[in-house]
């Protein structure tokens, strides 16, 4: 038994985790000493121990689908890249990396691409996530500096969450806010989001803003502030104010779909608050004018003086565990390295430091353009590391076509099967969380260690190592001699301080000389960590003139336009218990209890208008594509907009992927796609039959069947439906395998059990609607096998008579279902605390508390409909 302090690999809160490994069994708990979480974990973090198994892992290098040695794989990669570079030049090669790589991996990838291959075509999934925020900070502050900390969130008078569902996406930070608000009766919370989310649970004001209209609200706020303060002291302050002049309260209210009173109340609260902090995430960034929205937010903090003081500031929350680390190394096509840009002095300096004559001189292709260039055949080789672009980029059909036609696709992955890796010619097995070793930086600029506590499985290797091997194969070995990630880190830290007399904000040169042991033991630390006493202040601008700048913002409508054919706007985002493309959370049964298939949230008015039924299925169609989802009628959903999760994809469902519908519209300044708004139509779909299939081995279904894969331990579980029955297909399968089929048929009901020498191999329970089957009973039948005739009979019917069902799971930490909670409420539990005492629900991570409250409240409650 051993314990290791490490960091959670999911969201940008960056919680400290203590992992314990006991004869192969991993368990985790929050690290009390970590300043991001002080011991708390959310449900995803708490389930980390369940994700360390090796099922579904990619464990060996592969070329053309065949296992090869590392020597062969890296030599082959080097030779193929070299051939393309020699024939078409370095611009024909690209890397597409991830905010989930460690800083050391990221640094190595950036160095190889920009420094030695000699093109800047290294972009990352952060383009889909943070790039508008980066542009906003750089334009205003002259550097990519996040000027806030989690303590500022706790110690503010007014906390504004805009385009952020922190209750689900940054749960531990949200819990810190909940606690701070409980302790400070004067604190006010405003949530700005077109939908009423779980985050609204603590809101004093919820502004259900029209999709994409946030810039109007903040530009109007600038105008209101300027009526009382002089803002012309900032560079371009007068211009920003001139742009804001037309935005009086009436115009803002009309543009944002709010009442004048709501707007006025918000403005008055902001102006009156001694301290105010604005947390913003994807509802702001993922927009074709996202950079301007970020600057509209930063402008009001500068103008009001609620900036660079405790409890104040524009705080962009990072999504991925190391989005910040990527920004620090400069791992975007539009940055050079360590907060340096494609400017003569910076170029010369980085070339000197890396000892290269091949340094890229101009920015490279940003994500959406990069995949378009692959599609046009201009980029002929792409190396994808730690991201799943066939799922997460907009217009995924075009992305898949581009990958299918690309002459060389290399994928570094931990998962064996992803939509992207299906296109790979070369696959590298990467070390996963718990095995890899390095650093990550969270939203508040805090660098923490991810430490290995598990042995490397199969032949998996750290991403930095794989990159260094390919660099060697390309002939650049001298610059990639590292033997350990500690050496990569020190080089990165040294570059941050190299010829940095206080011009560049990012400086961790104080860590450049850490010994291996000191690096191993590094405690969480916020940057800067300078090696000399330099001036480092948040109040200064990081441009040569040292000034802070306002950006004139002219609010724009969404690029997506609704009309008679596509009358609704589709919004997409996160659900509480899944992580992105589900490669690591989609197989954990506990994490699929909360929501187990793609849903679409619809307002009651739209549901009536489009004849959608709660729990029924619907087809959603845009100009780009189509998906199928289960209807959830949600009173907190704005009329005219729909919401679907971003997570499902071809590995987990047929037609479950939202990016099949999203158009590739991007912000001209940041290149970030407008992922939050797509013009769509919706129509109910009543399939002729629905059912559950549970089997020992994977079943391949005909193309006309709609299916959703459910997470189960060891078994395969598909929920299925369609217009054409598949009874004969399954009987044919039984015959082919020599399984004995036992059938129960009554009208449209059709149940099948397939046996092989008394062992249950497959079961299907189907009917005109989805039969309610007892999954626990069925699972047990696969492990023990029913003993008596009565048991077999119960199994064929799908449930044991009289056994109470759990209902939908609300508390994933303790597996507490809706029915038990309702029973407890009926039995006298009147508060969340009382429910917690009786059932334990809500007492661990707390992220189901908003739902518990909803179930307790007698008023017409929106959370009952919450998925
Ligand atoms: N459970 C879970 N947590 C995660 C992740 C995950 O996959 N799962 N991913 C992590 C990552 S990488 C990221 S980037 C973060 C994202 O964290 P968030 O940005 O908080 O999450 P989202 O659900 O994408 O979007 C947030 C909200 O934006 C709202 N929104 C949409 N359009 C608009 C608009 O025009 N204006 C406003 N004001 N709001 C709008 C949506 O309704 C949604 O509630 O989450 C991180 N945390
Ligand atoms: N419509 C819509 N689209 C969106 C969004 C949205 O809100 N709406 N959100 C966007 C945002 S904010 C983001 S961040 C992206 C996320 O989208 P992606 O980055 O595509 O999603 P992930 O599933 O996190 O992909 C990470 C991949 O890396 C693998 N992996 C995990 N650890 C390692 C490792 O250590 N090394 C290597 N080599 N591989 C590893 C995982 O198995 C997984 O396949 O999606 C974006 N797309
Ligand atoms: S809030 Fe949850 S997912 Fe995010 S870092 Fe903490 S434990 Fe991990
Ligand atoms: Mo993200």
UniProtKB/TrEMBL annotation:
<dbReference type="InterPro" id="IPR050123">
    <property type="entry name" value="Prok_molybdopt-oxidoreductase"/>
</dbReference>
<feature type="domain" description="4Fe-4S Mo/W bis-MGD-type">
    <location>
        <begin position="1"/>
        <end position="56"/>
    </location>
</feature>
<keyword id="KW-0479">Metal-binding</keyword>
<keyword id="KW-0560">Oxidoreductase</keyword>
<keyword id="KW-0500">Molybdenum</keyword>
<keyword id="KW-0411">Iron-sulfur</keyword>
<keyword id="KW-0408">Iron</keyword>
<dbReference type="InterPro" id="IPR006656">
    <property type="entry name" value="Mopterin_OxRdtase"/>
</dbReference>
<dbReference type="InterPro" id="IPR041854">
    <property type="entry name" value="BFD-like_2Fe2S-bd_dom_sf"/>
</dbReference>
<dbReference type="Pfam" id="PF01568">
    <property type="entry name" value="Molydop_binding"/>
</dbReference>
<dbReference type="InterPro" id="IPR006657">
    <property type="entry name" value="MoPterin_dinucl-bd_dom"/>
</dbReference>
<dbReference type="InterPro" id="IPR009010">
    <property type="entry name" value="Asp_de-COase-like_dom_sf"/>
</dbReference>
<dbReference type="InterPro" id="IPR041957">
    <property type="entry name" value="CT_Nitrate-R-NapA-like"/>
</dbReference>
<dbReference type="Pfam" id="PF04879">
    <property type="entry name" value="Molybdop_Fe4S4"/>
</dbReference>
<dbReference type="InterPro" id="IPR007419">
    <property type="entry name" value="BFD-like_2Fe2S-bd_dom"/>
</dbReference>
<dbReference type="InterPro" id="IPR006963">
    <property type="entry name" value="Mopterin_OxRdtase_4Fe-4S_dom"/>
</dbReference>
<dbReference type="Pfam" id="PF00384">
    <property type="entry name" value="Molybdopterin"/>
</dbReference>
<comment type="similarity">
    <text>Belongs to the prokaryotic molybdopterin-containing oxidoreductase family. NasA/NapA/NarB subfamily.</text>
</comment>
<keyword id="KW-0004">4Fe-4S</keyword>
<keyword id="KW-0534">Nitrate assimilation</keyword>
<dbReference type="InterPro" id="IPR027467">
    <property type="entry name" value="MopterinOxRdtase_cofactor_BS"/>
</dbReference>
<protein>
    <submittedName>
        <fullName>Nitrate reductase</fullName>
    </submittedName>
</protein>
<dbReference type="Pfam" id="PF04324">
    <property type="entry name" value="Fer2_BFD"/>
</dbReference>
């Amino acid at each position: 038994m051993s314990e290791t302090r490490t960091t959670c690999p999911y969201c940008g809160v960056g919680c400290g985790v203590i992992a314990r490994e006991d004869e192969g069994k991993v368990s985790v708990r929050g690290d009390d000493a970590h300043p991001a979480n002080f011991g708390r974990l959310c449900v995803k973090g708490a389930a980390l121990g369940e994700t360390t198994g090796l099922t579904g892992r990619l464990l060996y290098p592969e070329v053309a689908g065949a296992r090869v040695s590392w020597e062969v794989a890296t030599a082959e990669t080097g030779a193929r890249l070299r051939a393309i570079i020699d024939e078409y030049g370095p611009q024909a090669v690209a890397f597409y990396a991830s905010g989930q790589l460690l800083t050391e991996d990221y640094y190595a990838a950036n160095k190889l691409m920009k420094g030695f291959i000699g093109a800047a075509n290294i972009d990352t999934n952060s383009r889909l996530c943070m790039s508008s925020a980066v542009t906003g900070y750089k334009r205003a502050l002259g550097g990519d500096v996040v000027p806030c900390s989690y303590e500022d969130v706790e110690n503010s008078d007014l906390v504004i969450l805009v385009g952020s569902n922190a209750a689900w996406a940054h749960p531990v930070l949200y819990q810190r806010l909940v606690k701070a608000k409980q302790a400070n009766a004067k604190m006010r919370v405003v949530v700005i989001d077109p939908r009423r989310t779980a985050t609204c649970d603590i809101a004093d004001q919820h502004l259900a803003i029209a999709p994409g209209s946030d810039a109007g609200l903040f530009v109007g706020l600038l105008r209101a502030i300027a009526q009382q303060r002089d803002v012309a002291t900032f560079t371009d302050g007068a211009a920003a104010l001139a742009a804001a002049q037309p935005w009086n309260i009436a115009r803002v209210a009309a543009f944002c779909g709010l009442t004048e009173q709501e707007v006025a109340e918000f403005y008055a609260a902001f102006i009156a608050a001694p301290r105010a902090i604005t947390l913003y995430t994807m509802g702001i960034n993922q927009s074709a004018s996202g950079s301007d929205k970020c600057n509209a937010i930063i402008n009001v903090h500068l103008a009001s003086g609620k900036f660079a003081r405790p409890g104040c500031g524009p705080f962009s929350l990072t999504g991925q565990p190391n989005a910040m680390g990527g920004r620090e190394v400069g791992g975007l096509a539009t940055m050079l390295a360590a907060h340096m840009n494609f400017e003569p002095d910076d170029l010369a300096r980085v070339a000197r430091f890396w000892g290269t004559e091949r340094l890229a001189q101009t920015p490279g292709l940003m994500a959406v353009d990069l995949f378009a260039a692959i599609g046009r055949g201009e980029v002929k080789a792409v190396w994808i590391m730690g991201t799943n672009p066939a799922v997460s980029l907009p217009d995924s059909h075009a992305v898949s076509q581009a990958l299918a036609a690309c002459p060389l696709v290399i994928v570094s992955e931990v998962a064996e099967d992803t939509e992207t890796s299906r296109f790979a010619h070369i696959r590298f097995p990467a070390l996963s969380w718990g095995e890899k070793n390095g650093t990550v930086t969270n939203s508040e600029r805090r660098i923490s260690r991810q430490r290995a506590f598990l042995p490397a499985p199969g032949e998996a290797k750290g991403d930095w190592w794989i990159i260094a091997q390919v660099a060697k194969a390309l002939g650049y070995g001298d610059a990639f001699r590292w033997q350990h990630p500690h050496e990569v880190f020190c080089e990165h830290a040294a570059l941050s301080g190299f010829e940095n007399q206080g011009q560049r904000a990012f400086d961790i040169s104080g860590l450049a000389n850490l010994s291996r042991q000191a690096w191993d033991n590094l405690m969480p630390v916020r940057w800067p960590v300078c090696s000399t006493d330099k001036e480092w202040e948040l109040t200064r601008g990081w441009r040569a003139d040292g000034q802070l700048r306002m950006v004139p913002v002219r609010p724009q409508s969404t690029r997506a336009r609704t009309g008679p054919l596509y009358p609704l706007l589709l919004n997409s985002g996160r659900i509480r218990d899944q992580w992105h493309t589900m490669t690591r959370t989609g197989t954990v049964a506990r994490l699929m209890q909360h929501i187990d298939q793609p849903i679409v949230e619809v307002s009651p008015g739209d549901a009536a208008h489009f004849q959608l039924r709660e729990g029924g299925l619907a087809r959603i169609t845009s100009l780009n594509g189509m998906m199928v989802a289960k209807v959830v009628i949600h009173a907190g959903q704005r009329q005219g907009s729909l919401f679907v999760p971003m997570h499902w994809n071809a590995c987990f469902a047929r037609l479950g992927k939202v990016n099949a519908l999203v158009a590739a519209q991007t912000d001209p300044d940041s290149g970030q796609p407008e992922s939050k708004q797509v013009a769509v139509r919706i129509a109910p779909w009543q399939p002729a039959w629905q059912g559950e299939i549970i089997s020992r081995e994977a079943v391949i279904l005909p193309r006309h069947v709609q299916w959703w894969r459910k997470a189960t331990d060891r078994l395969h579980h598909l929920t299925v439906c369609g217009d054409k029955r598949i009874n004969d297909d399954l009987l044919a399968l039984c015959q082919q395998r020599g399984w004995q089929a036992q059938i129960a048929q009554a009208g449209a009901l059709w149940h099948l059990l397939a046996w092989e020498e008394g062992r249950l191999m497959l079961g299907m329970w189907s009917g005109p609607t989805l039969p309610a089957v007892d999954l626990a009973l069925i699972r047990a039948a696969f492990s023990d096998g029913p003993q008596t005739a009565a048991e077999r009979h119960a199994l064929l019917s799908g449930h044991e008579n009289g056994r109470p069902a759990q209902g939908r799971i609300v508390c994933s930490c303790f597996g507490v279902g809706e029915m038990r909670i309702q029973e407890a409420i009926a039995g006298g539990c009147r508060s969340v605390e009382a429910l917690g005492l009786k059932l334990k629900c809500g007492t661990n991570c707390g992220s189901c508390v908003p739902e518990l409250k909803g179930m307790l409240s007698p008023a017409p409650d929106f959370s009952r409909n919450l998925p």
